[in-house]
Amino acid sequence: MAEVSEVLMSVLSTVRVPRPGDRVHKDECAFSFASPESEGGLYVCMNSFLGFGSQFVERHHARTGQKAYLHITRTRKAQKEDDNNSASGDPPKKKPTRLAIGMEGGFDVEQDQYEEDVKVVLFPDRQEVTSEDLSTMPDVARERVSLSMAGLLAADSVSHALQVQQWDGEVRQESKHAAELKQLDNGLKIPPSGWKCEVCELQENLWMNLTDGKVMCGRRYFDGSGGNNHALLHFQQTGYPLAVKLGTITPDGADVYSYDEDDMVLDSKLAEHLSHFGIDMMTMEKTERTMTELEIAVNQRVGEWEVIQESGATLRPLWGPGLTGMKNLGNSCYLNSVMQVLFTIPDFQEKYVSNIEKILDEAPSDPTQDFKTQVAKLGYGLLSGEYSKPAPDPGDDPNASSEPRGDQVGIAPRMFKALVGRGHPEFSTNRQQDAQEFLLHFINMVERNCRSGPNPSEAFRFLVEERIVCQQSQKAKYTQRVDYIVQLPVPMDQATNTEELQEAERLREEAEASGSPPPPAPRAQIPFSVCLDALSEPETLTDFWSSAVQGKTTATKTTRFASFPDYLVIQIKKFTFGLDWVPKKLDVSIDVPDTLDLSALRGIGQQPGEELLPEVAPPPLMTPDVEVKAPVLDDSTVSQLCEMGFPLEACRKAVYYTGNTGIDAAMNWVMGHMDDPDFSAPLVLPGCSSAPGTTPTESISEEHLATIVSMGFSRDQATRALRATSNILERAVDWIFSHLDDLESMEVSEGGRSEAGSEASRDPPPGPRVRDGQGSECVGYLCYGVLTLGTV
């Protein structure tokens, strides 16, 4: 022990006590998904507070020279079969009574109980120091190490802070209608029992409107139970906003729903509002389950294994390399599904998994904040099979059956999710997100972090050719842009079961007129081929400004592939906008074939004998003696956008950057740039300074330059794009892909020497690196609503 005491005293200066704001990683290894529950436990550096599994702690010690680590191991306690734990002597486990997480009466976050063992380990000889051993150490060592241990154990780990530890689904706000609610003096009095819907005579899930006292049934639930939507229809017809659920009224309150606010609300004048219709709140008793109780019951069922069975079949658990599951971190299924698909792509496997040793060796001092390290860690975790093993079933009796549990260990990508979502207004939260949006966000991060060496996102990159033909002059314009995803529309009028849908609509209208429950609606069957046909159909541009006729006219636009990627990602646009601009999801079934031939969608460029539209000269640069004239914008399109509530400058930019091609194109631009920091900033002409007093030679962001250069363009081309778009990266990328023809003809010069006559300049300047395949023999993968087609 004297030798251990001497070693501990020698490293005492490196032992730190965590302070507020320090990042403590005591639940997950920085290089793997090892945790205190893993074999060998987790070693937490007592200086940097980084966690390392048993296979990586030696690496960290060798690189940094740190010697003192807090070793944490957790062992799962055996679970008794008795649900109430009566045999164990423990108090019975209470069922949830509150729609909350991590709160009294709510759902328990920590479903498994662990026994924890903690000690200090000194490297390189792995000398162990327990709490009991510290009592025999010198006072200075005992105090310093004890404070560090206590601080590490008490601190919230980074991953723990990122979890949904506490959430209260019962927090309700006072309705804006409650204080001034108008109630009709219609003499209606509601009896204390015996209620039924006034339309269909349903006797459960009944709601009384607090304006006119009408009693009607509630909404139909997803499984067909509930009501027939008559209370909702009554609101839609009358606009009376508040309703109370009969059977939930007690002296303590009741369930009140605001149809206008679309949420459960509080009504501070509920007793007064009920009394208007003869209901004495103080004498009422609860006879029906509240909405909270119903939601709790649904949430308890959602986690059951039966819910995820396929047609009731018994599924056989699989383990091994490439069969690793990812845990849901609270609405993180969009991330899990995208990453599972990406690591089936050889490019991502070779970039991050095959080179993992090199990546880990080159990792910075804090690998938890390094993109390449965390992506490699996730990829290796998914493909190696180390975390795809049956979880052992713990038991007190070592001779008991060692039959493994049905679930696998899996991985929880908390560190990865925190890194890729950092600073993003949506992906940094625990809210539900769109898989397609996350895929593009992740590809953007890959692009920024692959400025040298192989770029796996090239597997998805392709060129789109757009051909616009002026109908008055019959002259054409060709442009190319880079994309990663094809969005296919859903032509509902092309359903193969149109007669069935029409019959179902007729029956629904009859049921609604008679007040009876409508029959289940069939799902529209849409062939995948008609979605592709809709993509290739010419689009009519009614307000196209033609440089040939120097005015607005009609044009047609067709979209084709200028190249085919190795893997084509297709998004089915199942959301549409109604007449009220409210998004609606289409209930459709699309039959995707096993193989596709997309070669008919390849663009062929300028056709023989076809004349091109004259190129319009770009606006001149601002100089002291030359004033830039304002661009000619379509005032009617600007006005239409402003009437929708968008800022004037944003509307002007939308019309400008879409070349006066009409309201649809401008609206798409607005929807795609609403999150831009300069969305409402004044329109700045290309080549002009972004602020008064600056010049066209203002400094360009080196990071933005490097990002564009990594996509295959020269530094001069990147500089020109950034200067043309006020040094805004996203705008520059859009600009450079819409001006490929201009870039190919520009003279590239470096170091003051023109290269126009050099040998290298005879070849066209490098464009975006894209691969080109045949466009046929594709295999489909389903990724949370996004279809990935891999060319084989």
TrEMBL record:
Record GO biological process: protein deubiquitination; proteolysis
Amino-acid positions noted as binding Zn(2+) in the UniProt annotation, renumbered to this chain: 197, 200, 217, 230
InterPro entries from the UniProt entry: Papain-like_cys_pep_sf, Peptidase_C19_UCH, Ub_carboxyl-term_hydrolase, UBA, UBA-like_sf, Ubiquitinyl_hydrolase, UBP13_Znf-UBP_var, USP
USP domain mapped to chain residues: 324-764
EC number: 3.4.19.12
EC category: hydrolase
Record region (Disordered): 75-98, 386-408, 499-523, 747-773
Catalytic activity: Thiol-dependent hydrolysis of ester, thioester, amide, peptide and isopeptide bonds formed by the C-terminal Gly of ubiquitin (a 76-residue protein attached to proteins as an intracellular targeting signal)
Positions of the UBA domain: 632-673, 699-739
Annotated ranges, domain UBP-type: 173-281
UniProt keyword Transmembrane present: no
A Pfam family hit: zf-UBP_var
The keyword Zinc appears for this protein: yes
Amino acids binding substrate: 207, 219-222, 257, 259, 262
Keywords annotated in UniProt: Hydrolase, Metal-binding, Protease, Repeat, Thiol protease, Ubl conjugation pathway, Zinc, Zinc-finger
GO molecular function: cysteine-type deubiquitinase activity; zinc ion binding
PANTHER family given in the database record: UBIQUITIN CARBOXYL-TERMINAL HYDROLASE, UBIQUITIN CARBOXYL-TERMINAL HYDROLASE 14
Similarity remark: Belongs to the peptidase C19 family.
Listed name of the protein: Ubiquitin carboxyl-terminal hydrolase
Species this protein is from: Astyanax mexicanus
